[in-house]
Amino acid sequence: SVGTGHVYQGRSKSFVVQHDAHLLTVCRYVERNAVRAAFVERTEQWRWSSVGQRSGSDRVVPLSAGPVDRLVEWLRWVYETESAEHVAAIRKGVVKGQPYGTDAWVAQMVTAWGGVQATVRSPGRPRSEGRK
């Protein structure tokens, strides 16, 4: 609650993510942020990247294994081109807080987490019953 930087300025976001390939896709998206922003050429060059940690960097920061095992070829997968559909869905999660997962799982989360219902609706006022 005290300090400066992105964490304290509201830049950090959170949204519910299904614990399967969807979570790995979000992790890849996060790992690629520094490359996407042209801060570095390769993700392992970014000081705060877990890719650097996992690829033998001399920086020692404790890393959690996470709820989903990383792929054996994680670094190769991080560098594969991300689909525009996945990037758009992740960004919707970041901006609107919309859950990210399969349609059925998202529907379950909307029911379980009542506060996320607005994240899956279209913007604007709902149409009245008599109007099309």
Explain how this protein is built.
The structure is a single chain. With 132 residues, the protein is mostly helical. It is 37% helix and 0% strand. It is built from 6 helices and no strands. The longest helix has 13 residues, at 84-96.
Counted by DSSP, the helix tally is: 6
Q: What percentage of amino acids are in beta strands?
A: under 5%
- Low-confidence segments, ≥5 residues, pLDDT <50? none
Inertia-based shape: elongated
- Main sheet? none
The CA-CA distance between the termini, in Å, is 48 Å
The helix-strand sequence is HHHHHH
The total strand number stands at 0
Rounded mean pLDDT is 81
Give a brief description.
The longest helix is centred in the last third of the chain and has 13 residues.
Task: Quickly list its features.
132 residues; mainly alpha; 37% helix; single chain; 6 helices
Outline the secondary-structure elements:
Blueprint lengths: L20 H11 L1 H4 L13 H5 L19 H6 L4 H13 L6 H10 L20
